[in-house]
Amino acid sequence: MAAINYRFNGSHGDEWTYRLDTLNLAYATTTADLFMDTPTHHIDELAALR
């Protein structure tokens, strides 16, 4: 799994938006629903934005 974080500054003063994308890859023969179940664990990588 790879997480990609984006923070965009707006064109109207101090406005900004935040986006998080997650990419799941499997290197094996598997079923199409591999990433559709409830995750077995959670990793919190959130941080305070300045």
Topology:
Elements: E1 2-9, E2 16-23
Antiparallel strand pairs: 1-2
Descriptive terms for the model:
50 residues; two-stranded antiparallel sheet; single chain; mainly beta; elongated
Give an overview of the whole structure.
With 50 residues, this protein is an all-beta fold. The protein has a domain at 1-28. It is 0% helix and 32% strand. Strand 1 and strand 2 form a beta hairpin. It is elongated. The two termini are 26 Å apart. The model has no long low-confidence stretch (mean pLDDT 78).
Q: Summarize model confidence as the mean pLDDT.
A: 78
Give me the number of helical elements: 0
| Main sheet: strands, sense, barrel | 2 strands, antiparallel
Distance between the termini: 26 Å
Topology, number of strands: 2
Query: Order of strands across the widest beta sheet?
Result: 1-2
Name the helicity range. under 10%
Q: Tell me the series of helices and strands, N- to C-terminal.
A: EE
**How much beta, percentage-wise?**
25-35%
Short description:
With 50 residues, the chain is mainly β. The protein has strands at residues 2-9, 16-23.
